[in-house]
Amino acid sequence: MSVRGELICGVDEAGRGPLAGPVCAAAVILDPERPIVGLADSKKLSARRRDQLADAIRANALAWSVAWASVEEIDRLNILHASMLAMRRAVLGLVPAAMLALIDGNRCPDLPIPARAIIGGDASEASISAASILAKTARDAEMHRLSAIFTGYGFERHAGYPTAAHLAALARLGPSPVHRVSFGPVRKVMQQPLNA
């Protein structure tokens, strides 16, 4: 959105909680001349509706950017700092550049522009809702892609989150190259012999 000529982006991430896969962030500058109906916190939308809205955001936003922090970066920096890094990359990827960033959550990444953290922003700010939808759909697509490479874990179903099925597969197969070895449940499996 634009206020007094300022380009304002919303920023959110997806994938802080999973045991596997990268963390994804998105930044979106909405076009007030092309409103998108139905924007909401991505967690409150069905997968089909998220995909529809993601297409609408990419088609109608003034600017959007999706960026990542890798599993290696998560393990080296920790998930919080890796999420901040992905958010920074998303904001810096916007063309045109934003002049103010609204960040979902209680802290802001290091940015060259002013930023404001908004707790629950993915439900209250349309641009953050749009960013949450882009981040979630991009990350889900990436986990589907990884599921075809690292079979048996069910990434296409749980996106790397610590479901009972994922934990059982992890215990049975051991960690894949895209598991986050700095996360407790993965580290615990690495310290135990594999189940027969």
Task: Tell me what the structure shows.
- With 196 residues, this protein is α/β, with parallel strands linked by helices.
- Helix content is 43%, strand content 17%.
- Helix 1 packs across helix 5 and helix 2 packs across helix 3.
Question: What is this structure's SSE topology?
Answer:
Elements: E1 2-3, E2 6-14, E3 23-29, H1 47-60, E4 63-69, H2 71-77, H3 79-92, E5 100-104, E6 115-118, H4 121-124, H5 126-149, H6 155-158, H7 164-173, H8 184-190
Parallel strand pairs: 2-5, 5-6
Antiparallel strand pairs: 1-2, 2-3, 3-4
Helix pairs in contact: 1-5, 2-3
The CATH superfamily title: Ribonuclease H-like superfamily/Ribonuclease H
Instruction: Provide the β-strand percentage band.
Output: 15-25%
Given this structure, which CATH class is correct? Alpha Beta
The total count of strands amounts to 6
Q: List unreliable stretches of 5+ residues.
A: none
Shape: globular
SSE topology string: EEEHEHHEEHHHHH
Question: Would you identify the CATH architecture?
Answer: 2-Layer Sandwich
Mean pLDDT: 94
Radius of gyration: 17 Å
| Helix content estimate | 40-55%
Largest sheet: 6 strands, mixed
Number of domains: 1
CATH topology: Nucleotidyltransferase, domain 5
Classify the oligomer.
single chain
Distance from first to last alpha carbon: 55 Å
Q: Decide which structural class fits the backbone.
A: alpha/beta
Q: How many helices in DSSP terms?
A: 8
